[in-house]
Amino acid sequence: MTTHLRNSLPKLLAAAAFIVAASAAHADIKIGAVLSVTGPASFLGDPEKKTLEMYVADINAKGGVNGQKINLIIYDDAGNPNQARTFGTRLIEQDGVDALLAGSTTATSMAIIPLAEEAKVPFINFAGAVQAVFPAKPYIFKTPHTDLMACEKIFEDLKKRGLTKIAMISGKDAFGASMQQQCMTVNAKYGIDVLHQETYGPGDTDMTPQLTNIKGTAGIQAVVNPGFGQGPAIVTRNYKQLDIKVPLYESHGVGSKQYIDLAGAAADGVRLPAAALLVADKLPANDPQKKVVVDYKTTYEKNTGQPVSTFGGHAYDGLMILVDAMKRAKSADKAKVRDAIEATKNFMGTGGVVNMSATDHLGLDLSAFRMLEIKNGDWTLAN
Amino acid sequence: MMRRFFDSPYAVVLVLAIVVAVLPLLLPSLFYLRVAALICIFALVVVGLNLLIGFAGQVSLGHAGFFGIGAYAVAIGPTHLGIPPWLALILGAIAAGVVAFLVGRPILRLRGHYLAVATLGMGLLFAMVFANESAWTGGPDGMPVPRLVLFGWRMSGPWTWYWIAGVTLVIGAWIAANVIASPTGRALRAIHDSETAAQVLGIDVARYKLIAFVLSAVYAAVAGAYLAMFDGLVTPEASGFLRSIEFVTMAVLGGLGSTLGGIVGAALLVLLPQLLTVFHDYEHIALGLVMIVVMIFVPAGIVPSLANLLGWRKS
Q1: Are the C-beta atoms of residues A372 and A274 closer than 8 Å to each other?
Q2: Are residues A14 and A79 in the same domain?
């Protein structure tokens, strides 16, 4: 009687879950993904989704992991943290996943982290900000470089060139604001003085006033622009129009061909830290990362017909680290897989070499970033 | 008999109380319980909003602003000011009420589209403040919300929050029923039908509009605080424009002027994204389609139309 009642009422709701689950046999490994496939963060979630689908199909075609097929369940949170948490709960409680590859943005990742931690499900997220893995929580890992690392890479390059007095102009969006904060925590370590700071809103179309202020500040040797999307392209154009002579540094947030298209000739000479994926073809043949990034780039572009982005690469790294850990653990047992992920050493991903430890659940160092310079409308390796 | 029963605003409260009490016995997992808790939280906003839109006939496209005030109150209060979460919740609700009072006085003089645009601007302003004052609010990435501790109990997990939200919803519906049955409710309905006529009858139009506005703001703030504590996280998205639209959609879809309708509308919009995952890439199209179909075939909203159809209520 009770079981009958329990099953009858939520039937409507359960139907959705059943249809998804029905395609899976019991022996499958279930991997759950909550990604921002639509909405304002779709530029992150869309390539991540395509990457996961593509490579899971490939792994299954080759016989799966430890003889088990992977059943990938993807939900779209549309960039909404509340929705991400609901889908996270659904994957853990309802679908009973063995591991999570989720969280296109920092906010959606932060919404799922407590769930995974509580249910002890290995969770690799794709959040940009550093707070997603520091301080390290047992079941939480991430693959993308942090904005802190981007700052350090820029400051390292500035120091090498003897440019220590800088100005910053940052976007007020999540990406720009977070990176600006992170930069201000490490500038002293590299002996960089930030003499002047400006900001611009996500929808601004002219940054001339802010840049005029920067131009008018005496003693500035370089300008750093933590930002994302169209903002940095406008900054770059205005920068050239105002004829500011000192070098301009952009962040890893502009690492797409679109930035060069938007900024045009003004982008010449701009430097930025970026993942090796952007310059896959230009890496020297003896570069240890060359094979991974060229393979991923070719596969992605062939399958989707779209240019590769570093964001899809984060999903690739997450999936491969997870699969690798499952193979070493010889099972999909959550605790064993967690231990195996934490023991990941010398894993070569699109983001760089990953060496995890009990305190470092990201495992990338500064060598993961390459310093690029834009020349004649194309990326080149600086130095 | 059915007709007379459903004409009483208290009937809805009674039905709701029974449903809230029985539902957890039927839900097989924590996931369903979370969805049920979310429905209660959003329904709370819509019950309040219904007083404003459905009874007073004033459109607000900025109620997510008040939702955000409640949500950020329980985040900022304990984190930056050392206020216990339960007190922050109450202060947040009061703050939302005061803001609604101050903002409502001038903008409720506006009518129709002008009022809608003014409330829209108000909502956007709050979202901007939450996104930009990163020293207090953590900026666009949001900030964590400390757990609610009551009498030494840490309130967390879908079970606890289902009961908190469910009981609050019943109380909220009961308060709304009281307002509707009182002279205030009759005054609001008079304003809805014709502001000029209401004025001629001696109704203080501005005052009653303001009462509905402040009341609905407090409902939204309490719900916002609940969601923030339930999720343990708050982002500026909580007070975003889309949230405001979502609230109005819930109210309209379920049926304006019907408390039960608001709850059904909230349930529908929370459930649909979960149900429509079967359509994978087309879920947004399906969602839009459902709304269009409802608006075309039952323009008065689901619950009032259904009640008419079954002859439970005089049209």
Answers
A1: yes
A2: yes
Domain count, chain A: 2
Residue A169, pLDDT > 60, answer yes
> Residue B137: what pLDDT?
85
- CA-based nearest residue in chain B for residue A174: B140
Label the pairing between strands A29-35 and A70-76. Answer: parallel
Distance CA A380, CA A268 (A): 11
Q: Are residues A139 and A8 in the same domain?
A: yes
Q: Are B304 and B312 in contact (CB under 8 A)?
A: no
| Confidence band of A116 (pLDDT split at 50, 70, 90) | very high
Confidence of residue A9 (pLDDT cuts 50, 70, 90): very low
Residues A29 and A114 in one domain: yes
CB of B236 within 8 Å of any CB in chain A? Answer: no
Average pLDDT of the segment spanning B195-210: 89
Query: What residues in A contact B35, CB-CB < 8 Å?
Result: 13, 86
**Residues A231 and A376 reside in one and the same domain:** yes
A177 contacts in B (CB within 8 Å)? Answer: 134, 139-141
Q: What is the mean pLDDT of residues B85-107?
A: 94
CATH code for the domain of A48: 3.40.50.2300
Element (H, E) at A272: strand A271-275
> Which has more confidence, A86 or B276?
A86
Best probe of the B interface among A2, A12, A13, by most B CBs < 10 A, is: A13
Residue A253 scores a pLDDT above 90: no
Interface pTM, i.e. ipTM: 0.83
Q: Is residue A286 part of a domain?
A: no
Q: Do A238 and A374 fall into the same domain?
A: yes
Q: How far apart are CA A324 and CA A102, in angstroms?
A: 18
Per-residue pLDDT tens for A10-54?
554 444 444 444 444 447 999 999 999 988 888 889 999 999 999
A288 within domain boundaries: no
Interface test with chain B among A53, A75, A82, by most B beta carbons within 10 Å: A82
- By CA distance, what is A88's nearest residue in B? B31
B139: left (phi over 0), alpha (psi -120 to 50) or beta: left
pLDDT beyond 50 at A1 = no
**Measured between alpha carbons, how far is residue A240 from residues A206, A212, A245 in Å?**
13, 12, 8
For A310, the domain range is 2-145+294-364
